[in-house]
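Work Package 4 report. The design task specified in the project plan requires that, given a folded chain encoded as structure tokens, an amino acid be chosen for each position. We show below one input record used in the internal validation round.
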């Protein structure tokens, strides 16, 4: 199980790095391209729009890969949690379900961009993450309360 956990952590780290790059593309490059398009004189508008559109497509690609990596991380870490003895297996199953939802989102965005087809997988992912996060928090708080008085862990 240690290799599964390691690959899960590496996938999560890569997903986080891709998310940072995605924010640079979406929050900086795309904003600048759209602002330049909006302010451009009429003869330049088509070229400026094409630039903004290209950056938007780059955003789709980066979001797709980021979702694939995050989904992979959640599935792998869900397997690890489901195999753990101190935590409910259902938490791991919900983690894996949220990971599968992100994998589907990555595929949809890669194939068709930000489309309505992504609504259901996004909703499933959000609900599953909320469920396992709250459940894991409650479990951790209960473990802390159940620990012996002299235990520092």
């Amino acid at each position: 199980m240690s290799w599964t956990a390691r690959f899960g952590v590496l996938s999560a780290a890569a997903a986080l790095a891709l998310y940072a790059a995605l924010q640079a593309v979406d929050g900086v490059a795309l904003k600048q391209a759209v602002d330049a398009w909006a302010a451009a004189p009429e003869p330049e508008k088509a070229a400026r729009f094409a630039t903004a559109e290209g950056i938007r497509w780059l955003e789709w690609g980066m979001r797709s890969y980021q979702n694939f990596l995050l989904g992979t991380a959640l599935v792998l870490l869900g397997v690890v949690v489901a195999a753990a003895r101190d935590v409910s297996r259902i938490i791991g199953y919900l983690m894996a379900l949220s990971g599968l939802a992100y994998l589907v989102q990555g595929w949809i965005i890669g194939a068709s961009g930000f489309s309505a087809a992504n609504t259901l997988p996004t909703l499933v992912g959000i609900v599953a993450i909320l469920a396992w996060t709250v459940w894991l928090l409650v479990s951790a708080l209960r473990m802390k309360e159940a620990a012996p008085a002299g235990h520092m862990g």
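The longest helix spans residues 45-83. Validation will be extended to a larger panel in the next phase.
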